[in-house]
Design a protein that fits this description.
heterodimer; A: 116 residues; mainly beta; six-stranded mixed beta sheet; four-stranded antiparallel beta sheet; 10 strands; B: 109 residues; 0% helix; globular
């Protein structure tokens, strides 16, 4: 597709269950970011992947959160033993890292997670 | 670490001009971005500044002063559809992008 694609778009899960969120970046984009946005609040950085370098995991809030990315393709964000405070929209963004266009970061539509 | 401050809310009148300020503190500055986010939607890119000065793009302009750690987004000829949150974001040398809390702009007739 032409843009960043995320799935599922909406997920309702019971407290304590694990969830997996998926992001398909724009083809050829080597950089990929995950952010969390609680209702009415700003974007909270979670993790950043750049090519084959070690990811920057400094924003992950706890060890229940993890993310993987294989090469420059799909990324998955996994939340284990979900809690109600995890309810938020999880936004994925990707960026081309060469040329002037590498300064534009494109966001997906987000995965809206509700933990009940 | 990085610290980014912007006003929480602003109100302006249709047809007017509004300036949304952003101040930041960062180590290894590598660019400042403005994004627009309508309620329930993903952020969309508006502008990018890495050198001091004004970047103009239609009704929207963005200004940067690196020495002052300051930027503003200027919206001219406001339209009702400009009601949205405007997010200031700073990129550091490691390419980590940190967002401010966003400014919710309400445009009134």
């Amino acid at each position: 597709g032409a843009g960043v694609s995320q799935s599922p778009s909406n997920k309702v899960t019971e407290k304590g269950k694990d969830v997996e969120l998926r992001c398909d970046p724009i083809s050829g984009h080597t950089a990929l970011y995950w952010y969390r946005q609680r209702l009415g609040q700003g974007l909270e950085f979670l993790i950043y992947f750049q090519g084959n370098s070690a990811p920057d995991k400094s924003g992950l809030p706890s060890d229940r959160f993890s993310a993987e990315r294989t090469g420059e393709s799909v990324s998955t964000l996994t939340i284990q033993r979900t809690q109600q405070e995890d309810s938020a929209v999880y936004l994925c963004a990707s960026r081309e890292t060469t040329g002037y266009s590498g300064n534009t970061i494109y966001f997906g539509e987000g995965s809206w997670l509700t933990v009940v | 670490g990085q610290n980014i401050d912007q006003p929480t809310e602003m109100t302006a009148t249709e047809g007017a001009i509004v300036q949304i300020n952003c101040t930041y503190q960062t180590s290894g500055f590598n660019g400042l971005f403005w994004y627009q986010q309508h309620a329930g939607e993903a952020p969309t890119f508006l502008s990018y500044n890495v050198l001091d000065g004004l970047e103009e793009k239609g009704r929207f302009s963005s200004f940067l002063s690196r020495s002052k750690g300051y930027s503003y987004l200027l919206l001219k000829e406001l339209q009702m559809k400009d009601s949205a949150s405007y997010l200031c974001a700073v990129r550091n040398a490691g390419n980590m992008l940190t967002f401010g809390g966003g400014t919710r702009l309400m445009v009134k007739p």
